[in-house]
Amino acid sequence: MKALLPAEFADLEPFAAQWCLPTEHERYHARLASTTEEMQTFYDAVTPRAEAAMDYLDALSLDSLPDEATNLLYLLYSMIQASFPVELWRQPRVPDSGATSFDCFVEPVP
Q: pTM of the entire structure?
């Protein structure tokens, strides 16, 4: 199986298939489909590597990122998506929000 992430981030490869998602909508739904424990494991693995990942990406041109680097960027976006549920809420959904949802009409692009 071909690696989704740059070789320097092979330790994060176990999370790539689930969390390297190109749209906010997909990342949000992955969060909702995850347990708190799954998000905690993901967050604990990625957070200490986030600065190194940003340094790696900063050295590349955002206009022509290789697929593996784009996936690394998506993984960071997913870590951000999981941060509030892990750090504050201790659950995938926003507390006291009932059945509300939101749609993102503009996506961040590399």
A: 0.82
